[in-house]
Design goal:
The chain has 164 residues and is an alpha+beta fold. The chain has a single domain, classed as 3-Layer(aba) Sandwich (Aminopeptidase). It has four helices and seven strands; from the N terminus they run E-H-H-E-E-E-H-E-H-E-E. The N and C termini lie far apart (38 Å). The structure holds coenzyme A. Acetylates the N-terminal alanine of ribosomal protein bS18.
């Protein structure tokens, strides 16, 4: 009999200060220039949409923070624990963020990503984001003055009311 492998159940909830210890472990493991607790706290105080993704066996496996604009949602941070990448967690969080954007009646999602971050750029491109610009010297960088950011954007089609 073939065993059917089920993906682990995962759940998203609003990021709170109680999650910061687990979030900071991931943040410091994956970025050369990690956000500080203060950055996360400022985002919560500003009312930004911010969620953590958990599985029963691993606790916090990822998180995202975004910001509402007039007609858009700007993704500020999307992260997945190093040992738990390539399991669809980022795609799952992007689905949730897209739903938040649609509920906010935003017409697009946009973000900046380091030009050298081919993993993240691959994720966003596969998800449907398009390159729409370059910000020169946007990020601090090790051993170099600054690093460029690629600006990417995803159009959010309007929900068709009554059809779900
Ligand atoms: C980028 C990141 C969020 C992706 O998270 P993830 O949970 O591993 O991504 P997913 O499993 O949902 O990947 C979805 C798709 O994105 C692409 N992708 C993701 N990671 C990739 C990688 N390392 N190499 C190539 N493609 C990748 C693939 O197409 C993948 O689909 P597949 O696995 O079916 O081929 C994660 O690698 C991460 O946290 N990196 C460090 C932090 C970071 O760079 N954040 C983004 C800042 S803008």
């Amino acid at each position: 009999m073939n065993a059917v492998l089920q993906p682990p159940p995962r759940s998203l909830s609003m990021l709170t200060e109680n999650d910061f210890d687990e979030v900071m472990v991931i943040e410091q493991a994956i970025y050369d220039f990690p956000w500080t607790r203060g950055n996360f706290l400022d985002s919560l105080r500003a009312g930004y949409p911010a969620e953590v993704l958990r599985t029963p066996q691993d606790g916090v496996v990822g998180y995202f923070v975004a910001m509402f604009g007039v007609d858009e949602v700007h993704l500020l941070n999307l992260s997945v624990a190093p040992a738990l990448q390539r399991r669809g967690h980022a795609r799952y969080m992007l689905d949730a963020l897209r739903s938040i954007a649609r509920a906010h009646r935003a017409s697009q999602l946009w973000l900046e990503v380091r030009i050298s971050n081919l993993n993240a750029r691959g994720l966003y491109e596969r998800y449907g984001f398009r390159n729409v610009g370059l910000r020169r010297g946007y990020y601090p960088a090790r051993g170099r003055a600054r690093e460029d950011a690629v600006v990417m954007s995803l159009q959010i089609p309007e929900a068709v009311h009554g059809l779900g």
